[in-house]
């Protein structure tokens, strides 16, 4: 795929960065061959800084790295769509996106940042991280934790009140994200599966409608 990219006369190609979970456009920057290769090798997004004329890893100073989910060239292979999980604000102003403020309480943005953190834990496996411990233990441990949290969520729903149910539900959601990270499920795959289930729902119920 990378051999097909059409770099301009300066050896650059525009890269549009998109939050893989929310669809929000985060920023526009440029890649040269080195930045593209480093992005694909490390799974953390690199650019070419035109002002400094050098390789630039996004978040190298701030810690707000962009974890690569997918990189897609456009139809002419002269522009790139870079789908990411951002570890923090993408803009140097501290905003989530370079194209204006967004709702700070947006759940999609929070989940995308959590997914970025889990990817980093899976890669680095820090000794003091609970998430890294699950990744180190492997699928059996993740599966057991999933069953445990699902059971506790069900028990809370049956008789422990709304507040306790929400607490257990978010524990379950967290382990589901650990599982998604472990199997490297992409937002597009999850969305496609949900859409397929929605299409099948009327047939399963024996009725027509949108589900």
Supply the CATH class of the largest domain: Alpha Beta
Structural class: alpha+beta
Strand order of the largest sheet: 2-1-6-5
CATH A-level architecture of the largest domain? Roll
Shape: globular
Distance between the termini: 38 Å
Radius of gyration over all CA atoms, rounded = 20 Å
Number of strands: 6
CATH superfamily of the largest domain: Phosphoribosyl-AMP cyclohydrolase
Separate helix tally: 6
The mean pLDDT is 89
Unreliable residue runs: none
CATH fold category name of the largest domain? Ubiquitin-like (UB roll)
Structural domain count: 2
The residue fraction in helices comes out at 40-55%
Largest sheet: 4 strands, mixed
Give the H and E element order.
EEHEEEEHHHHH
- Percent strand equals 15-25%
Strand-helix topology:
Layout: E1 13-19, E2 25-31, H1 33-42, E3 46-49, E4 54-57, E5 66-73, E6 80-86, H2 107-124, H3 130-137, H4 139-159, H5 162-182, H6 187-205
Parallel strand pairs: 1-6
Antiparallel strand pairs: 1-2, 3-4, 5-6
Helix pairs in contact: 2-3, 2-5, 4-5
Please, could you describe this protein's structure?
By secondary structure, the chain is α+β, with helices and mostly antiparallel strands. It has two domains: about 1-125, Phosphoribosyl-AMP cyclohydrolase (Ubiquitin-like (UB roll)); about 125-205, Helix Hairpins, CATH 1.10.287.1080. The chain contains six helices and six strands. The chain has helices at about 35-40, 105-125, 130-135, 140-160, 160-180, 185-205, and strands at about 15-20, 25-30, 45-50, 55, 65-75, 80-85. α2 packs across α5 and α4 packs antiparallel against α5. The chain is globular.
